[in-house]
Design a protein that fits this description.
44% helix, alpha+beta, globular, 12 strands, 11 helices, 398 residues, 8-stranded mixed sheet
């Protein structure tokens, strides 16, 4: 266990953590119907710094235009009014407590403001995780664009949960480990620390998003890859995959795209259901390929696994096109990539948004550079990054 807050009373603590974003590699839309999805951590990270001390509680989230502060006395009074206590697990607020917090923040029952929901989520975690109110400042910076389906809110929730758990004495940064390539866990105690962070982050996501699947907070916590089906996550370690992350710049509505697939499925059940089944089988094969990459012993095994991965990427985009969720900007992205003998697909809801170009371990740099230049000349925003990045990371203290 870490040193608890009472033992550190009067001494300022600084906690710096980061968590990755996420990309869906396989399983977009089909996961809604109980099929398998595979997500990988995206090596664009959210960084959070928590510093104790002073006489206020300050929350600085510039990416969502939040800079809020409360006096410590205000938080102590709120703590007393709510009858709070330190929770051992991610217990939800009672209806009475939630209503009181909403009243405190001036939130209506049907609130949709991202800022108000972020404040509500922060106060819930602050009041439930800590053994008593403490003055602190939380500052957040992120490489992840917000509202892009890349897990920005989950990465923040993971960072916040981990930092609060650490200063509460419930989490030791030296005792964190993720699952191995085969899904096994060598240190059950340390893995349970990550699991606790993941549960608290999911609680935050529920407040912000209502009914999240749980896949975002899982991949942002554990890193690597997560296979997800019917609410069950199976994290695994994978080698990092080099990718081009490509923003089409075309806005899309996830709700409208999900509704469109549902309506097409209802009209053409015998046609659409086999597509969803194929996406499920493709995701299952994708898990096998990732494990092959993790255990490959030589270039022949790597090349064989990558060859299958590229084929799955091509098929995946075609199946998503058949569901009606692609967009001319995404199809052009795939076409430009193909002209350079590279493989791309949409990621997320589709209809615009983001796509990825998946690169091999030995893809010539000149070919990647030429593809990137053509994409940028065509008006796309492009990042060279990787998938399968480390999950929750403590930078200070180490």
């Amino acid at each position: 266990m870490t040193t608890n807050m009472s033992e550190n009373e009067g001494a300022s603590q600084v906690v710096e953590v980061s968590a990755p974003g996420k990309v869906i590699l396989h399983g977009e839309h089909s996961v809604v119907y109980g099929k398998q999805a595979v997500a990988l951590s995206l090596n664009l990270r959210t960084h959070l710094t928590l510093t104790t001390g002073g006489s206020s509680v300050i929350l600085d989230l510039p990416d969502v235009a939040i800079n809020e502060s409360w006096t410590l006395k205000t938080m102590q009074d709120l703590w007393s009014q709510l009858g709070c206590k330190q929770e051992s697990d991610a217990t939800p607020l009672s209806e009475e407590q939630a209503a009181y917090l909403c009243q405190f923040l001036g939130i209506a029952d049907d609130v949709t403001s991202p800022q108000k929901l972020a404040l509500l989520s922060f106060l819930h975690l602050y009041l439930a995780i800590l053994p008593c109110p403490v003055a602190l400042k939380i500052s957040v910076s992120s490489q992840l664009p917000t509202g892009a389906g890349l897990g920005s809110s989950a990465a923040y929730a993971v960072c916040l949960s981990a930092a609060l758990l650490h200063i509460s004495g419930s989490l030791n940064p030296c005792q964190l480990s993720s699952p191995a390539a085969d899904g096994s866990v060598t240190d059950i105690g340390s893995f349970s620390n990550l699991k606790n962070v993941c549960h608290w982050a999911f609680r935050s996501e529920q407040i912000v998003h209502g009914t999240p699947s749980g896949i975002d907070n899982s991949i942002c916590t554990y890193g690597g890859a997560v296979s997800f089906k019917c609410g069950n996550s199976s994290p695994m370690h994978v080698p990092q995959l080099q990718v081009l992350l490509v923003n089409t710049g075309v806005p899309r509505s996830t709700k409208a795209l999900v509704t469109g697939v549902r309506e097409r499925r209802e009209r053409l059940m015998t046609v659409v259901e086999p597509i969803l089944q194929s996406l499920d089988a493709l995701a299952d094969k994708g898990v096998q390929v990732l494990r092959q990459l993790a255990s490959a012993a030589d270039d022949n095994e790597y090349n064989s696994a990558y060859s299958t991965l590229f084929e799955l990427v091509d098929i995946n985009h075609a199946l998503l096109c058949a569901l009606g969720v692609s967009h001319p900007s995404l199809d052009r992205l795939v076409g430009i990539s193909r002209s350079h003998d590279l493989h791309a697909k949409l990621t997320g809801a589709g209809g615009g948004g983001f796509g990825i170009v998946v690169l091999g371990h030995a893809t010539p740099e000149a070919r990647v550079a030429a593809c990137r230049k053509e994409l940028e000349d065509a008006g796309y925003q492009v990042w060279t990054t990787s998938l399968g990045a480390p999950g929750l990371t403590f930078h200070h203290p180490q």
